[in-house]
Amino acid sequence: MPELPEVEVIRRGLAPVLVGRRFLAVKVGAQRLRQQSSPQELRRWLPGRRLEGLRRRGKYLRFDLEGGVTLLIHLGMTGRLFMGPPPSPPLPHVHLVFQLEGGLELFFQDTRRFGQVLVFPPGEAPPPLAQVGAEPFSRKVTPAWLAGQARGRSRPIKNFLLDARILAGIGNIYACEILLAARLHPATPVARLTLADWGRVLAETRRILRRAIKKGGTTVANYLNSKGEAGLFQLELRVYGRAGEPCRCGAPINRLVQAGRSTFFCPRCQPRRDCNP
DNA sequence: CACCCCACCTGCGTGC
DNA sequence: TGCACGCAGGTGGGGT
Questions:
Q1: Is the CB of A259 under 7 A from strand B?
Q2: Which CATH number is A4-126's, of 3.90.1580.10, 3.40.50.1980, 3.20.190.10, 3.40.50.11030?
Q3: CA-to-CA distance for A75 and A190, rounded, in angstroms?
Q4: Which sequence spans correspond to the domains of chain A?
């Protein structure tokens, strides 16, 4: 569910309340997430430690705890984080409850349980983060850097944008929207893109992600921020989820499947390129 | 290596 | 009404 903008909105909601507080206890439900530290590990490393910082890396939330302990949370498709008091009747699919100083509770809810809650002791960097690619807003990401990453690859640009080991944080919704804005057919092999194409891809990536953060993220089904509020960027989606509807140009929006995921695009605004650049 | 498929889960909408 | 099916924002393991 949540892509970079949604995770960032959650981070901005949680940080002012949580940073500086001490974790006191963790309640762990019976059902496990796809990736989850054992209750023993969570209880060994969290209680008694103060939260020194809350950062985002790609779609991960990174809680930096006193003494170099790291708590990593990934929301998967349907994960939510929100702060107490606990609603009654109790919500279904709440798998962990973190109790913090001041009677504060942080709930992790995840219907489909694709999320991750992992704790790492001091020392080594958390291994999952080593796999995470560049931040889209990082200065090292330039059109030339993207072209370099694409060198020797033949995959479609849509799949390239979804690869979190290259650029972190872009998911299915924003990949579709970025390609429409950059006027690129989603099946275009990355080796075919010119430097000017990469320039548009990067500029539109940053513009769209920034705008989505400003609008509180995209809510198409499940997403809610840390205060339980929906986002508003779904009102600005131009192609995602709109197969058969007219694009702003008038042509009907198409759907295709790439690497097992739906891609929405406008065949007129994003024409297939048959000739060489 | 590069790339794709599929598994991992639950819930919802659709069509018969 | 019930049931089967397809589909959904995520990653990662295994196969080609």
A1: yes
A2: 3.20.190.10
A3: 29
A4: 4-126, 143-265
Q: A189-201: per-residue pLDDT in tens?
A: 999 999 999 999 9
Residue-wise pLDDT for A105-126, tens only, equals: 999 999 999 999 999 999 878 9
Q: Round to a whole number and report the distance in Å from the CA of A56 to the C1' of C9.
A: 17
pTM for the structure as a whole: 0.97
Q: Is the CB of A261 under 7 A from strand B?
A: no
Considering all nucleic acid strands, name the nucleotide whose C1' atom is nearest to the C-alpha of residue A259.
Answer: B4
**Rounded distance between C-alpha atoms, residue A35 and residue A3, angstroms:** 18
- The answer to whether the C-beta of A263 is closer than 7 A to strand C is no
Q: Which nucleotide is nearest to A156 (CA to C1')?
A: B3
Q: Beta carbon of A80 within 7 Å of strand C?
A: no
Is the CB of residue A256 inside 7 Å of nucleic acid strand B? no
Task: Using a 7 Å cut-off to protein CB atoms, list the covered nucleotides of chain C.
Answer: 7-12
User: Which has more confidence, A90 or A167?
Assistant: A167
Closest to A211 (Cα-Cα) out of A177, A244, A243: A177
Q: Which residues of A are tagged catalytic? A: 2-3, 59, 261
Alpha helices in A131-239 (DSSP H): 143-150, 157-162, 172-181, 195-214
CATH of domain A143-265: 1.10.8.50
CB A256 within 8 A of CB A172: no
Are both A4-126 and A143-265 of the same fold? no
